[in-house]
Automatic annotation (TrEMBL):
GO BP term, pick one: protein transport
Start and end residues of each Membrane insertase YidC/Oxa/ALB C-terminal domain: 371-549
Descriptive protein name: Membrane protein insertase YidC
Topology with respect to the bilayer: Multi-pass membrane protein
The protein's assembly and partners: Interacts with the Sec translocase complex via SecD. Specifically interacts with transmembrane segments of nascent integral membrane proteins during membrane integration.
Function per UniProt: Required for the insertion and/or proper folding and/or complex formation of integral membrane proteins into the membrane. Involved in integration of membrane proteins that insert both dependently and independently of the Sec translocase complex, as well as at least some lipoproteins. Aids folding of multispanning membrane proteins.
Feature: compositional bias, Low complexity: 53-64
Region (Disordered): 33-70
Cellular component terms (Gene Ontology): plasma membrane
Underlying gene: yidC
Amino acid sequence: MENLRPILWLSLAFVLFLMWQAWNQDYGVRPEPPRAVDPTAEETELPPEDVPEAPVAEADPVDPSAIPEALPEPTRRQVTVRTDLLDLAIDTRGGTLVRADLLDFPVDLGEPSVPVRLFDERVRGYVAQSGLTHDRIADIDAATRAPSHHAEFRVDADRFEMADGEDSLRVPMTWTSEDGTVRVTKTFVFQRGTHLFEIEHQVENLSDQPWIGRQYRQLRHGPTPSRASFFLYTFTGAAYFDGRYNKESFESLRDSPIQQRLQGGWISVIEHYFMSAWVPFEDEVNSMYARAVPGATGTEYLIGLHSEPVTIAPGEVGEFTSRIWVGPKTQAELREISQGLELTVDYGIFTFLAKPLFWLLRVIHDFVGNWGWSIVFLTILIKLAFFHLSATSYRSMAKMRAVAPKLQALKERYKDDKQRMNTALMELYKKEKINPLGGCLPILVQIPVFIALYWVLLESVELRQAPWWLWIQDLSTRDPYFILPILMGLTMIIQYKLNPPPMDPIQRKIFMALPVVFTVFFAFFPAGLVLYWFTNNLFSIGQQYVITRKIDAAGGKKD
């Protein structure tokens, strides 16, 4: 049992090593981005599978297949749209969102003017497409009756901007069928202060026949490896909600495409702290599909929704409305938009612990206004919650330290008889009222909290680029000057001095090396995690020092 404590510390060191490897994989040297793709060339190479086929008459539309060939391509251009939170580029071909910059989230604190880019057609083939399909009627070409994302829209301006004092912005585009019997106005509707906006398709049936059609919405993403593991959960892939949260890696869609009906719910593409999501209204019924398709950047991936048919009588006007979120995974906002959308902030198997930790952090932050100090106060609360457990442990360790000479004498006396030595040790522990496993409790308590907090820092965009104090300006990345890891290493050395020294010389060397090993690992961990461990060590040292002094003063006899 005496060997259990070093085993636990070595296990924690191994866990740290795995976490360090995972963290380095995600935040280490990145390969060069793929070659920029000419968006015009990409569109001409798009396969017919990239739009769900409108069914014949009343057939069920859950099986997406081909769209008729697009009409000859007219002149294309991009329209820029700027709100208080978003800077977008919309291609006039199809009204496709081909670029989305998040103005309130810089890529790096050193370059605050360079925003995070979510949609990125040229580099990653990541776009949001939407359009209409027409249910086929005999002798009528459906492609001429409804504008897919291949259709060319017309727009009156090249730039739209939400002016100061305005709370909304509308960006209209129009399309008219070749024979002039159908006119569609596609309007992007933005509101101030949110990353959620709407896309309206207003259909005017100018013919003498009923128009029967559906809207579709889809997210398209180029090939991107997903860095997901037990200790690293920067998932990049598709997700959807059908009453429960489902996520699919892009790779899995190659062999297992998905088709199902969806009432309400949502579909999304997730990238670490950020996501895009098509969010239907609760009473909507859609066919959901997700699959791999060939594309200009290699194998690309679609996840989309295809609505139920709508009939518009001759001379009447009908409307389709869809909602899309393009922004960060902020839990409070996502929870208000649609059921289950906040589940995209996924802490994995430690969700049961990470969620209450984040909730408590959030409550503390509402009072102190700083995420760094919130971590400090959270650590104090955790220490208070386990105060008596830790005190019992430190008493056992202090008593072990006081009886160390007796332990050494027993080991010398029975060094050739392991069984008698263990029996004598147990009798001594019983006589001195020492729990030999007591010293393991602080480690056992810290490990799950430590890993859960690691995931909170990794997944919660609220802590991304959050400053603490002085040189720590981003709690989600490493300490730029390694000051906190070094201080943390010093606290581990102090703790080693307070603990009873191991009798075994090999164990003694292991414990002496652990502060160095942990300092190296922590040097590359997020500063918020190091801050938690450092604060925990400080309060542990204070508590252990007081208890050790009391036990030493009493000669190791009193409880």
